[in-house]
Amino acid sequence: MTAATTSLNGLAGLVQRVIALMSSLPEWVIAVAARVAVAGVFWTSARLKVDGFALKDSTYFLFEYEYALPLIPSDWAAVMGTIAEHVFPIMLILGLGTRFGALGLLVMTAVIQTFVYPGAWNLHLLWATGMLYLIIRGPGVLSLDHLIAKRYAA
């Protein structure tokens, strides 16, 4: 056996150990990270649109002139969008109705991508990845959804 072969075998063993270590990461860690990351984006956006419990004038302006969604009056869109940006992130953080909250935010993201910022597809795809993970895999064991399901399991 040559020194080069020994080095390659050692490197292959190291790579296998690192892969095994990464594979042992619990899935709930990924779920919590996805929930917090997605919720943080939309919660931050929501908080910028309000002053206390009232929508800022600038929020109405944004929805009328910059966002300008078709089919929905801008004042309705401002209220509904801001409420959704508050409620859905809370659902994700608590892990309560997580799949529904993630689906709501995914629909919002699709609307934003299609009608508001079509050039920001790379950012929206990043958000959508976290939401799709939550929709498909759920919120993980560190969630109210898990506790409720465990309590009512047959």
Textual characterization of the structure:
The protein is mainly alpha-helical and 154 residues long. It contains 7 helices and 2 strands, in the order ααββααααα. The protein has a two-stranded antiparallel ribbon. Helix 2 packs across helix 6. The mean pLDDT is 95.
Keywords:
7 helices, two-stranded antiparallel ribbon, 2 strands
Which oligomerization state do the chains in this entry correspond to? single chain
Based on helices, strands and strand pairing, what is the structural class? Answer: mainly alpha
The total of helices stands at 7
Rg (C-alpha, Å) = 21 Å
Cα separation of the termini: 59 Å
Please provide the ordered H/E string of secondary-structure elements.
Answer: HHEEHHHHH
How big a fraction of the residues is strand? Answer: under 5%
Described by strand count, sense and barrel closure, the largest sheet is: 2 strands, antiparallel
Number of strands: 2
Q: What is the helix content?
A: over 70%
Low-confidence spans: pLDDT under 50, at least 5 residues? none
> Quick one: overall form?
elongated
Average pLDDT figure: 95
With strands numbered from the N-terminus, the spatial order across the biggest sheet is: 1-2
